[in-house]
Amino acid sequence: MADNLFEGLPPPSANPFPLPSPSSEHEAPESVPADATESPPVSVPKPILKSALKRPKPSESDSEAATPKKSLKFKTTTDASETQVIEAMKKISSHIKTPAKFSKASKLAIQLIQSGSVKSGTRDYFFSILEAAISSPIPCTDPAVRADYNALFSAAQDAIEHLNKKQKNQLTAWTISAVVATDLYTDDSFVFSKAAGRIKEAISNLPVATEEDDVDEEVSLKHSTDKVDESDKIKLDTSLISRSEDNEEEEADPFGLDALIPGSTKKSEKKNGATVKMKKEEDEEDTKRFMKSQREALITCLEIAARRYKTPWCQTVIDILVKHAFDNVGRFTAQQRHAIEELWASIREQQTRRKQGKSVSGKLDVNAFEWLQQKYAGEKISIRHSVGASGDRRAQQWLG
């Protein structure tokens, strides 16, 4: 037993990955003895090859650093000068009268409204666009341009604050024809009910018609073929008279010395009084024209609504609308009152038919079951086969 048991064995190798002791956590690792043999190399697993198509997703910090943030900004103003805007409005008003160009011209007008180009300096040219659109040979309710009219005059409400009183009144009357009337053709019950509510509100806001309104209506009917408006003639005559009076006064006092004379103040007061009176008369004429056009537009809406009475879900709304117009018939002129009374009589007759179980067309109203019963009453049906001529049983037996 004197022999060494460890004879012939290799010397012990040093640990390649020594574990640090708790006390020597921050101390430098001990050096390996020189006579120690090297340990066999540790096999490192090869990295898994990833597909070239699969790329690591960049982190949020990397993406933010690579691409700077960009906020979406929509341009709502125009850099065009007022002169350029006026020229554009003139071109639009000249093209919007043409039916083939109406759709494109109306969209350009909407762009001008949205860009804020309608201001106090351009309102007259913008109003000429709306006036030309209304004077187009195609009516507002034509299916080809119905949506364009609705969009144009709906957008025009955003620029109404820049118009004067006369232009606002006229736009209100045009909106009834271009927006409310076109909404009555919708297939949406909510839109239809909303349009009917606007008509009822406009009727309630009308003043009671006077005998003068009836006389004006008769005169307009007699002279409907005349293309020249009598009110324009009166305005033209009054403007010429006022210009001649101004010229006479300038000739009588070319150096403006009458202002220094005490007696000349009476002439200036008289002139101011005539100007105020003339302005008052013009305002009254504008109000009459506004009420006239508004009444005509409301009558058109009532006629459109009445033509949709065959649609079942429209009937209740139309009943309420026409009844409201009949209750406020005194707010319309003589011819319009007669039309509303006839319309209400027609609606009442159709209501009676509905209560009796008859439809608007005069035929009896039937439900789905009764319709199927009538359809298959003459058909033959077999127990083993489908309905057809080969069957020997009739559908009445299983339909009751």
TrEMBL record:
Residues 9-21 have a biased composition (Pro residues). Residues 1-80, 240-288 are annotated as: Disordered. It comes from the Eukaryota. Residues 266-288 have a biased composition (Basic and acidic residues). This is Nucleolar/coiled-body phosphoprotein. It comes from Acacia crassicarpa (northern wattle).
